[in-house]
TrEMBL record:
It is a multi-pass membrane protein. Pfam families: Competence, Lactamase_B. This is Competence protein ComEC. It comes from the Bacteria. Keywords: Cell membrane, Membrane, Transmembrane, Transmembrane helix. The chain crosses the membrane at residues 40-69, 76-97, 263-282, 289-307, 313-332, 353-376, 423-444, 451-468, 480-500, 512-531. Residues 541-727 form the Metallo-beta-lactamase domain. NCBIfam families: ComEC_N-term. Its main location: membrane.
Amino acid sequence: MSLARSADTAGPAGPPEPAEPAEPARATADLRMTLVGAAAWTGGLVGALAPAAWLAAVAACGGLGVAALRARGRRGAALTGALLLLVLLAVGLSTSLRHDQVGGGPLADLAEQRAVVRVLATVTADPRPLQGPYADGVWLRVTVREVEGRGSAHTLRAPVLVLAPPEWAGAALGSTVLAEGRLGPADGDDLAAVLDATGAPQVRDPPDLWWRGAGAVRESLRDSVAHRPAPERVLVPALVDGDDVGLDPAVADDFRATGLTHLLAVSGTNLTLVVGSLLWLARGAGVRGRWLLLVGAGGIVGFVLLARTEPSVLRAAVMGSVALVALGTDGARRGPRTLGVAVTGLLLVQPGLAVSVGFALSVLATAGIMLLAPGWRDALARWMPRWLAEAVAVPAAAQLACTPVVAGISGQVSLVAVAANLLAAPVVGPATVVGLAGGLVGLLAPPVGRLLGTVATWCVGWIVAVAERGAGLPAAAVDWGTGVVPLAVLTALSLLLAVLAPRLLARPLPTILLCAVTGVVVVVRPAAAFAPSGWLVVVCDVGQGDAVVLRAGAASAVVVDVGPDPVAVDTCLSDLGVEHVPLVVLTHFHADHVDGLAGVLEGRQIDRVVTSPLLDPPDAVAAVGELAGAAGAEVGVASYAATERVGEVALQSLAPVDSTPRGGPGDGSTANDQSVVLLAEVGGVRVLLPGDLEPPGQAALARALPDLAVDVLKVPHHGSRHQDLDLLTGLGAELALVPVGADNDYGHPDAGLLTDLEAAGARVLRTDTDGPLAVVVRDGEAVGLTRD
């Protein structure tokens, strides 16, 4: 690891060279370019967010120029101020022009009219599967060059998002296609419209040779790890070129909780590793001087083609190039100056990056490594080996620099990020380089490519283990909030820590005590936070998923669905004091209902697991069988109309009617309507648990049981608007409980549905706003309780 390197979030860097006191001009140049970069960023922000604030921005830019007065003298300050003003105006003007170009023009007009059009477009991003319920097809980005609609034709150049049927899955990046569909307005500022495409695209021109070559390498990379289990076979392409299609959301959550998300996207670290390895090989082959620079430039171009020329990739390439410059002679001084140049250049080419969170994280992490890490390393090196001091200082500096922005996005502050990055760092390089080698070699010798791919997945397996174990800690991340005041306080604390860190780290005792206190906070589980006296039913707060607990006796419960997060459901059961689970019912095999099973099994006796008879999707079925088998639990499918008593809980299966175990299409698309529907009674309270039963299944249930009445309804499918209201509002439920994740991407729960349930006489409680929900009996009636 070397402190002269930099990365988007956390990455290796190299020791700066000692300061030489006799070169003020060079130090001033570094400061000047840093100010130029700040001016460019200011111009982009003003142009995108507050175009009317130009005068204030110009005044601020003049103030930045005056700040250089003492360093350069009056003439130098004037020149610096003029340069800052010019850059600010250039980026701001570029931002405004791009906004007008994207937000106006004939394409935007046709989108407002929702016109049916025919377009000629170039594919600029690989097709990706649509996510969410009822999703069927792919989405991709294109640049529209010609459009015909409403009796007129226009030649232009505008970015468009395409929502397309599955036939578009083979649309190759770089190809030119003819397509038809209906235009609609776009939500983002970087898109002119959204095209709801109909039918397959007609390919006018295939991709150029370099795009076909890059596509072949990406395909070979996927093939080299296809024989390996998930998530490793998905994470190797994600680590090498950002191809994370098929990544399990639970794995992504683990990486997010442990500060390892940057490994799932293309970052400056990737380019530094790939191009650095290429330069090492070139040096070994005797390449020197300008030829070595040519090899490095070729490596950068090849990397960009492989990872795709999207704004995030271009940003990563530039940040990686900054890292390579910092590796050279006088890197400590040249690095900040080069970073200023890079920021300015990126914003001139892509002004929209000024409001990009990824861009902010890239710049902040790189600056943190360059400016903070050397001093922290030197302080730690007073009492620990220098290599270890550097290994600790690099991720810590990057993490601290990014902390306010990360908290602004997620509302959380990770307490394990530095340790997780430190543990993962030794295998990131081998996984990236060997994975890429597997894709390249696989083009000529597929068996050798698969061998290299296997080695890469072994390395990635260690990263997965670090993420899972770190996210599984009771306090891996703490809730912070995204308001102005919390973020201002966090920013102030981060700045204070940046100033005080060298003094604290120079002494072993304060450092060790601070680490020990943090470790205790992370590892020790807090006392039970939600266990209402006399609880009968609890809907756990597990995010966007279902996990319902029915009290079966002292320290015993029936669990219906287990949510997507093992830690969340384990915490819920521990809070309730559940040690024995005689029965787990998994209504269907979607991840948000089954992926938390390991958390239920953690430290508890499990007797039986009953599932939907539709055994689809296969990966989830296999995972459930493996976990249940390892725990010694009996596994079976629900039997229609069967009744049983489990401790204090009486259960009856109302659906599905066909109890024959059977496979499905393989993608889980039909699983919802084959959900196990349970009628439960506990403590005299009748509860309907319909899983994610779809409207046709709900209507069939209403026809089969027209007089069905319950006290409590678990609202199906997280409160989706797609419901059979005759069933849900005709149950006479006093309580309607909605398990749903905060800030989910699906629009759950639907406001209209909640209004209809309340109009039918139900009190609606939801986990995204109320936290875990409990049902108790008070004065002979079912009452809903929340944490508050």
